[in-house]
Amino acid sequence: MTPPDRGTPERVTFLHTSPLHINTFEGLRDRLAPGLKLRHVVREDLLKQAEKAGGLTPALRIHTGEALLKEAARGAEVVVLTCSTLAPVAEEVSYEGTRIMRIDRPMADEAAGKGGRIAVAACLEATLAPTMELVRSSAKAAGKEIEVSGHVFFDLWPLFQKGALGDYHAAIAARLREASCSCQAILLAQASMAPAAALLGEGGIPVLSSPESGFKAALGALH
Question: Which domain of life is it from (predicted)?
Fold first, then answer.
């Protein structure tokens, strides 16, 4: 497709599946790139479709791809899909002059670089398989041997859905403490889980999350 005149002031567009993610990325912008204009698009319907279907379907891939391309056509230099359940689609579509990316690839690359055992934790079952596959693909590209295990805290997801973020993050941190894991790193599969890492303190197994590393990658992709 041929890009139009890029008159939009927003250089980076984030496609979310919950409005609760907006403050996370606005905060990262304020800390890492003050003054950078962002655009946030929320498509809760896409994640609801994925939850209902148990993951990505051919139709949902089309709908998600259309949403990404619409934002690229609007003139963004970078379009970032922040939903890990839908994220594979970001690497299946392209638009001339725009970088379309998934928020969790930099996190997966970092984890894969460590090699060995990698644990993936999710609160939405539909997110687990695509994130585990993401880590495997990063390891293959890096020539690393890894073993990936998955852990789903599905009973915690309703806390996020009703906006009880403090309880949500505290519960995730508690589950991670309980999980005996002899691994090189733990990946938090969903951007919504990221604040739980700070509650675990330092000195233990590295806990990786996607928002900050993904945001930095988006900054690096700007023209």
Answer: Bacteria
Q: How many C-beta atoms lie closer than 10 Å to residue 35's C-beta?
A: 6
Q: What pLDDT, on the 0 to 100 scale, is given for residue 76?
A: 95
Residue 97 token pair: 């002059």
Whether 56 contacts 133, CB under 8 Å: no
Strands (E), 20-130: 38-42, 78-81, 99-102, 116-122
Query: Residue 70 is which amino acid?
Result: K
Q: 140-188: per-residue pLDDT in tens?
A: 999 999 999 999 999 999 999 999 999 999 999 999 988 767 788 999 9
In a shared domain, residues 131 and 152: yes
Q: Are strands 116-122 and 185-188 parallel, antiparallel or unpaired?
A: parallel
Global pTM value: 0.88
